[in-house]
Amino acid sequence: MLTPRAFLVPHLPTMLVDEHRHHYTEMLRALATVSETLRADAPAAAVVLSARWEAPGPFLASVARRHETLTDYHGFGVEVRYDCQGHPALARRAVETARAAGVRAATASRGVDSGVAVPMHFLAPRRDLCVVPVSIATAPVETHRAWGVALRRALDSWPERVVFVVGGLLSSNWHAWNLTRDVPESREFDERALEALRRGAWGELAGGDRRTTEKAQPEAGLRHLEVLRGFLGADLPGTVHCYEPGPGVGAALVEFALAGAAATREDDAQPR
Predict the structure, then answer these.
(1) How far is CA 57 from the centre of its chain?
(2) Are 265 and 38 in contact (CB under 8 A)?
(3) What is the pTM of this model?
């Protein structure tokens, strides 16, 4: 069964640099608050979609019993590591549910990249959750929504509490990032996307000025958000806890309340 909320969490490794330097930014404070909320929801596992894991064929879910960290960022002085336990049975359930719905999905054995490692480092620093990394794919947005619907169905029927996390950015102009060059179009793109998420206007994510989108270079074409849209089951509004722009990239921490999901353990303990 699902915990009552799902999250979009950024994966910028610079957040670990801030933490290492004891530079507690607004984003780090927001992540600490969300971590406490998640701990109160008491999940046993986390299914984490990484926008940095793009499968060339079917959607993938890692069935490894233990995940080693895949280092996909370099040169920051702080290594992103989140070695953690997997949950093979839950990963298989996700794939089986997707296949039953006609969605191409398969199991894999893969470590956790920064799209999983960075979000989970902040959300579950004790590493006490089993983690199932799942991918996006080279497929149309409608197929990504169907993958999200299948993941929701699998997690709704699972006997243990599970949280769904999407590790991804909004704009992601890495050339500008590497040159520390400001891109006004990235900020414009991010603000429009966040306003759409606040209002639950998911259909507006693909709109906007073409030149702005080309300059912003949205991560994975925002296919990770299309998975989240399908997972939510409706165009629900999100609560933006924090937005942190960088040179050419946009990091946002957004929470979505899930209708019909399990209450927190404390609520469950109350007499009916």
Answers:
(1) 20
(2) no
(3) 0.94
